[in-house]
From TrEMBL:
Family annotation (InterPro entries): Adenine_glyco (IPR005019), DNA-3mA_glycosylase (IPR052891), DNA_glycosylase (IPR011257)
Pfam families cross-referenced by the UniProt entry: Adenine_glyco
Gene3D superfamilies: Hypothetical protein, domain 2
Name the record gives this protein: DNA-3-methyladenine glycosylase I
Length: 193
């Protein structure tokens, strides 16, 4: 097997390597997949991706496979039940944001808008390659998109979470320059990140 250099963060474990090679940075346009990715980015805030990947199956189970139509029926009793579930990330803020974001997501759909159309408004061509040699945690673009999501009722979607989401869903090519995927995804763009 030929070694391909990856982003430094992805070299730590086989789980991270697989996530990097098969998921992270690959373009996602299907709305439910965009929704789930945004929710997982919220859970990842302040934690490592390894933890999220290790608990992703449990999070899916606990949150009804991230089906928004089911999540909007979660009650305060469900929140308390989830706060006792040791298999997931037990943060009340993160848990309640999933439920409120399900409502915001469905409200967008009712008004004829999707996450994909919202993203296309801000990023018509992608991926945008980070021109900076330094890794970023947010940008003017992630601030704009976070603000747009908040105006639509989303919670716990600050510019850092949104920046990470844009990386994960392939809108920003933030692979490290030595990574094989940086070259595979590089695109000259006039758009600012």
């Amino acid at each position: 097997m030929i070694y391909r250099p990856r982003c430094t963060w992805a070299e730590a474990t086989p789980l991270l390597q697989h996530y990097h090679d098969e998921e992270w940075g690959n373009p996602i346009t299907e709305d439910r997949a965009l929704w789930e990715s945004l929710i997982l980015e919220g859970f990842q805030a302040g934690l490592s991706w390894r933890i999220i990947l290790e608990r992703r199956a449990a999070l899916r189970t606990a949150f009804a496979d991230f089906i928004p139509e089911k999540l909007i029926h979660f009650t305060p009793h469900d929140v308390e039940r989830l706060m006792q579930d040791k298999t997931i990330i037990r943060s009340r803020t993160k848990i309640t944001s999933v439920i409120s974001n399900a409502r915001a997501y469905l409200d967008m759909r009712t008004q004829g808008e999707s996450l994909n159309t919202l993203l296309r408004h801000y990023i018509p061509q992608y991926p945008i390659t980070n021109p900076s040699e330094a890794p970023l945690t947010q940008s003017p673009l992630s601030q704009e998109i976070a603000s747009a999501l908040k105006k639509r009722g989303f919670k716990f979607v600050g510019p850092t979470i949104v920046y990470s989401w844009l990386q994960a869903i392939g809108r920003l090519n933030d692979h490290e320059p030595q990574c094989y995927a940086w070259r595979d995804n590089a695109l000259t763009s006039q758009h600012d990140i």
